[in-house]
Amino acid sequence: METKTLILIALFCLAGTTAFAAVKPTSNYIKSSCATVTYPALCEQSLTPFAKTIKRSPSQLARTALAVSFKQSQSTQAYLNKLKRFKGLKPRERSAIGDCLEEVSDSLDRVSKSINELKTCDRVKGQEFTWHMSNVQTWVSSALTDENTCMDGFGGRAMEGRIKTSVRAQITSVAHVTSNALALVNSFAQKKH
């Protein structure tokens, strides 16, 4: 019985080492790619779980980064929708949240378009690649602007407080992953071009 247990443990250890060895180069690829973005730790943290999908593909890395941005935007949109229904809001806060919600919805739409357009970039070359990639870069950049514009309605001393702090945390989080996605999209565009 003891021998069988030791053999099983050895097999699990070997399998774990093999799996680790397969993921490690991919994780190194993600780490080195994330070193070039504005928020490298967040980049690594958000993309490493997808290492097996990304492998060493700049295109897949960019697509995955956009998918992370999209998911974060959806989460922020859901949060803002719940917050807007909160009974204790001041009219100005409710209005600012509504405006912010509109900006996040626009951002979601642009990131979604970018994900689809990036798929096309894998199948084309030359001027056609440049045109499609330009669309992706413009939309992701606009999405980032939308996210940053969201906080404009919360300006001034009257808006200070828990609601503003809470919304800022959500928007900052989505803006950081979108900024990273834009950097990885730009990196892919340079490598392919």
TrEMBL record:
<dbReference type="GO" id="GO:0004857">
    <property type="term" value="F:enzyme inhibitor activity"/>
</dbReference>
<dbReference type="Pfam" id="PF04043">
    <property type="entry name" value="PMEI"/>
</dbReference>
<dbReference type="InterPro" id="IPR006501">
    <property type="entry name" value="Pectinesterase_inhib_dom"/>
</dbReference>
<protein>
    <recommendedName>
        <fullName>Pectinesterase inhibitor domain-containing protein</fullName>
    </recommendedName>
</protein>
<feature type="domain" description="Pectinesterase inhibitor">
    <location>
        <begin position="25"/>
        <end position="184"/>
    </location>
</feature>
<dbReference type="InterPro" id="IPR051955">
    <property type="entry name" value="PME_Inhibitor"/>
</dbReference>
<dbReference type="GO" id="GO:0009505">
    <property type="term" value="C:plant-type cell wall"/>
</dbReference>
<dbReference type="GO" id="GO:0009827">
    <property type="term" value="P:plant-type cell wall modification"/>
</dbReference>
<feature type="signal peptide">
    <location>
        <begin position="1"/>
        <end position="21"/>
    </location>
</feature>
<dbReference type="GO" id="GO:0046910">
    <property type="term" value="F:pectinesterase inhibitor activity"/>
</dbReference>
<dbReference type="InterPro" id="IPR035513">
    <property type="entry name" value="Invertase/methylesterase_inhib"/>
</dbReference>
<keyword id="KW-0732">Signal</keyword>
